Amino acid sequence: MRLVVVGNGMAGARLVSEVRARDRHVKITVFGAEAWQPYNRVLLSNVVAGTSRPDQVRLLGPRWHAEHNVTAHLGVEVTAIDRDARTVVAADGTREPYDVLVLATGSEPVIPAIPGVERATAFRTLDDCDRIREAAASARSAVVIGGGLLGIEAARGLAGRGVPVTLLHVRDHLMERQLDAEAGLILRETLGSLGVAIRTGVTVTAVRERHVELAGEELVDADLVVVACGVRPVVGLARDAGLEVERGVVVDDELRTDDPSIFAVGECAQHAGRVYGLVAPAWEQASVLADLLTGADKGARYRGSRLVTRLKAKSVELAAMGETHLTDEEAEIVRFSHRHKGTYRKLVIRDGRLVGAILLGETSAVGTLTQLFDRGGPLPGDRTGLLFPGVGAAATADNPTRMPDSARVCQCNNVTKGQIRACWESGARDVEAVAAATRATTGCGGCRDAVEGIVGWLCEQEGVSA
Amino acid sequence: MSQVHGDTTVGSATHCPYCALQCGMHVANGEITPREDIPANAGGLCQKGWTAAELLTSPERITTPLLHGKPVTWEEALDYTAGRLRAVRAEHGPDAVAVFGGGGLTNEKAYQLGKFARVALRTSQIDYNGRFCMSSAAAAVNRAFGMDRGLPFPITDIGRADAVLLAGGNVAETMPPFVRHLTAMRSRGGRLVVIDPRLTQTARLADLHLQATPGTDLALALGLLHIAVAEGYADLGYLAARTTGFEAVRDSVSAWWPERVERLTGVPVARMREAVRILGEAGRAMILTGRGAEQHAKGTDTVTAFVNLALTLGLPGREGSGYGCVTGQGNGQGGREHGQKADQLPGYRKIDDPAARAHVAAVWGVDPADLPGPGRSAYELLDALGTPEGPRALLLFGSNPVVSAPRAGHVTERLAALDLLVVADFVLSETAAMADVVLPTTQWAEESGTMTNLEGRVLLRRQAAAPPPGARSDLRILGGLAERLGCGEKFPADPRTVFDELRRASAGGVADYSGITYERIAAETGVFWPCPATETETEAGTEPHPGTPRPFLDRFATPDGRARMVPVDHRPPAEDVDEEFPLYLTSGRVLAHYQSGAQTRRIRPLNQVAPEVFVEVHPELAERLSIASGDLVRVRSRRGAAEAVARVNASIRPDTVFMPFHWEGVNLLTNPALDPMSRMPEFKVCAAALERCTGGDSAEDRERDA
What we know:
The structure holds 2 protein chains of 2 kinds. By secondary structure, chain A is α/β, with parallel strands linked by helices. Chain A folds into 4 domains: about 1-110 and about 230-295, 3-Layer(bba) Sandwich (FAD/NAD(P)-binding domain); about 115-230, FAD/NAD(P)-binding domain; about 315-385, FAD/NAD-linked reductase, C-terminal dimerisation domain (Enolase-like, domain 1, 2-Layer Sandwich); about 400-465, Arc Repressor Mutant, subunit A. Helices cover about 30% and strands about 25% of the residues of chain A. The longest helix of chain A is centred in the last third of the chain and has 18 residues, at about 450-465. Chain A starts with a strand and ends with a helix. Chain B is an alpha/beta fold. Chain B folds into 4 domains: about 15-55, no CATH class; about 65-135 and about 350-530, Rossmann fold, CATH 3.40.50.740; about 145-325, Dimethylsulfoxide Reductase, domain 2, CATH 3.40.228; about 585-705, Barwin-like endoglucanases (Beta Barrel), CATH 2.40.40. Chain B contains 25 helices and 32 strands. In chain B, strand 22 (about 535-540) and strand 23 (about 540-545) form a beta hairpin. The longest helix of chain B is centred in the first third of the chain and has 19 residues, at about 75-90. Chains A and B meet through helix 9 of A and helix 7, helix 11, helix 12, helix 13 and helix 24 of B. Chain A: Keywords: FAD, Flavoprotein, Heme, Iron, Iron-sulfur, Metal-binding, Oxidoreductase. Chain A: Its cofactor is siroheme; FAD; [4Fe-4S] cluster. Chain A: It holds the Pfam family Fer2_BFD.
């Protein structure tokens, strides 16, 4: 089989490695429009923030391609698909025949059509990150347009570099797709305390030399402008080839387009009416498709993904998942809000299952909640422990004096408090004497303090009663 | 028994019969006291150790050979066995006879058993229960360091560390005196991080506990490595000087950013970062793994990921730091070095290496061409028993697979299908009860020999008590069988004679014992291998090789001296949870018992503490299934079902149940999916269902009625 993959981003590169892991022989050719070796887009916020270096976000390199017998055309854009000849045509004239073609063309940033927008930098590629970091070095002020996940991460990263930054958002609260209004408000205050000024409900009308202009002609200082207004799927190649395209390239549960030889994965694909903009669904799709293409699991099907959003911004802990907007009429809502401390926790429960959650400020429950959400597992009757892990687990009586006589003090030698008391009553007055008689403390030695405490307490009692 | 002057093999100073810590103890007149001179326990003993002597005089000891359940003389038992072995071999060929050994056997016995299989039986079909124990860590560190010594440093180094990460080990129950070293570390301000799906006694001691979902240790290790790189804790100078492959590993963990790992493992990102910070900022740090991380169908890769983390932080080969695996069985270390493994010859040599074959064949006085090649791994061997292609006769020493093998119900069927099952043991274990021939052996304090503990320190087990009349040592049994098979002269029964031959056979191998003598062990309270029989010129004259407490300080045991970093990737458990089997089942140990419990279940005080198999259930799960502590419950998997008493306990994850493996039970359920490299079965995670047994009263009902 000759497999051709168009796109060497997170979805395309993942598909290639998943296929190769299952089948060492299939002939693989991959085209990437960017000359870069593929990198982990999830980590670009860290690059802007300076917590990851560009060389730390690489995925598969040229050496991997060589070692795994994958032909990679990097910096070569595919311009057409000749479906009759089952061949892709690239900008450099390469014609590559395929038996199976996978489109992983990803998406491109949405750049609002406003005057001067060419002065702004998108936030999508490693090149964009370079530009942002370079400009941030000398910028006295910055503006980020867009209060979604990426915009917030970019703004937090710039603030962390010491650049005064204003985040402009057209909607009424931040991350309105993932958060309810109250969470959006608390997030805004948290970011504010970290040096990100936030304006919501504002429309940018122009990008000028040293500032951006808002509706109403107000000006906001900006030596550096970053646009993070969402993405749209790159579907030109598919559309030109006559494949069914709506918002994305339409695929079925096998990730197959309406041409049985052509598949699509990642942000360019539209499955069951949904286009995903996160990496987890793209990788789930890549895994299913690799199973199907190699025959590793012919029954593999993609059934859609559950979305968990984790903000990657220093000192801001935020996790949001699923349907967070349902009301008390539509679902069981459990909520804890402590705006003053920047804490907000919300569970959305339906039919006894977790269908959505927001955790802001403190996320120690996030591991448990994500897994309950992912698996659709049943929830405990008492929801408190879900919001406050550890609550309900009875505090152990550490103080030896309050232990019941049946409590085991020495685990290693199975010695109870009652036995130590009996030992004391027959004359033992220090740890060594108790150890000699009961073997307590002679294993791991961890109960030495407890035994000392009990003996000391018994001696004290004796003194009191005497 | 009093110390006989001049004989180092007799005396009260010996070692505990159980775990790999091999605590030093005195045994005199049935009384046990701890030895202060052995660093591993430094005067400590757990309840297993204190009560170990009870089994020496237990009424459950067997002292008469049994043939089809009836007492017979040794002559009859050995004649019958040898006759049947010869007949099976004549009819079906040498590979129709198999040998299964154990990680509790002394070095001398392990060595002799491997030699017996290859020379007396000429079968390739030998493996041992250590395959179920240490094989994943062994495969990983052989690949990374070129040498598999559990702790490549003295155990006392732990007490001087500033941070220890323990992945999948519950030493507070499995080897309590080990905790003394962790306590020493913590009392100096060092910090302990524990990875475990349960809040174990060990996790309670930790400064930080990462309660990962069963089967996700590998993802967690990759996430920790990702964070270590991203946050600048990679020791680039060390990586350049002492390793190869870092770039590929670094690129591979780019895909394991912490938020992704959090979703798989359930461990919050903040805790992962804290763990890396603790390790990264410590002056001396150690990463240790136990069976919890290793007993998986991806155990080798999991250990590799932890080794990669240790290498990235620049730990292995630096005094006071490093990676180590906490060996489990009493002679789990020595048992994997001297040839009872399917692919191995003494000295940790590979059986498919022509030079190794030539060397060992010369010591054994046979033609290298007559040595068989590699055989089946433990589970594959047990799985093949009594099948048309598999062995028809099995000799079993120091193991109880009816309880300890994965998918044990199936293994029991395979054992029952054999033409001949011969078991050497000192109690009638569940497996011995099935045997055609049972050969009663001496045990522990009744014999001498060497044990190599978890540090790679070779120790001397002295004979401290007289064996009961009727029992014979494993070495004598092998000698008796060899004699009847026509090669008795090659199988002496005296441990020291066998050890001297082992020294020659191991000379020049990775695990070189040639410079170790009983006298040196006695004088030095143990000698660390490798210890070749070379002498060093000093000003004072020539000195024997001192042994090697820390083998990697100058170079690793790879051809170029550098540690190998190999990229690995996470994969889900071989069997994940689903609607029918919605819970993870994991297994482990309790303090009062050892391994299959064949010994400890026969010791009264231990049996009183832990009399029965139980299943640990989280209160949320218990509430949903209307289970109370004390209820009889049934745990089911695709391979079988087991009943056990419920213990409702918030220390376990709500999506997981835990059962100890010292009784027949949990291994009826476990998954025999094998690690592709180590052939380790996936003991530590499978999908299971839980229900209250109907028909019986619930504990609550009983309480009401009472």
